[in-house]
Amino acid sequence: MPGDLHNHSTCSDGSVPIHRLPLMAARVGLDTMAISDHDTLLSVQYCYDHPTQDGVRLIPATELTGYDYERSHRVHLLAFWPDPESKALREHCDIMRQRRNECCLQSAREIEALYPQFRTEQALEYAKDSGVLYKSGIMQALHELGLCDGIYTSLYHYLFGWNPRGIVLHSPEYRPVRDVLATAKAAGAVVVFAHPTVYQSMPLVRELVKEGMIDGIEVEHPRNSPEDKAECAALCEQYGLIHTGGSDFHGANHGHPNPVGACITSDDQIARIEDLAHQRKQR
User: Fold this and answer.
1) Which residue range is the domain that position 7 belongs to?
2) pTM to 2 decimals?
3) Which of residues 131, 160, 189 is at a domain's end?
4) Name one GO molecular function term (predicted).
């Protein structure tokens, strides 16, 4: 049976606790799931500690964030089977945790001045599992207070939007994408470029593929355009790359929620990830 290789829990910015995700996969007939929370080892360690849960095989993963400074946009890289003891990976996660917290705490302080009902402590309740305050946690608190009717609504865009820029948006400094790739490789991970359409990343994908810098591309994703999917599939075929799919599940913390299993990865591609990860561990 196929697997869903892109999912988020309360270990980052998802709304569902990590221990509940495998059963969701089992109920839709999947036998493999990767839990890939943002820039953290929490999901990695959980899946190493629980290799099978509710009849579902769990793949340790993390979604690492980098930045393409040439084109001025973020980049997400799915790192499967990384070594949780990797010094470089631990440093990356520590840096991103600190930077994200600083930005969101500053945003929360500014929101306190805008909405007297809101207190930062309430938003921090949603960060207990992750140890990181995310914008979605702030929005959950605002929603609970009746100040908005959802997470990614007009208020979110007013506060945190990109264009026009939100009035309390503070963005962390991201590491250059090639530095993040080096971090993932130092951790022995199998690296797949995530959802190229989301950040208009096809020019970068073409570069990295030609340089042999990535192991695969997330072709099947709810937000990939048909044109990008077709090109990514062709690149995977031409260069022998791994072809993956994932729902990018965030539970309620998503503008257009996608259930677990919305996009999937075939058994043969999952086997390729596991074989490559095993080869790298032997080295």
Assistant:
1) 3-93+175-282
2) 0.97
3) 160
4) 5'-3' RNA exonuclease activity
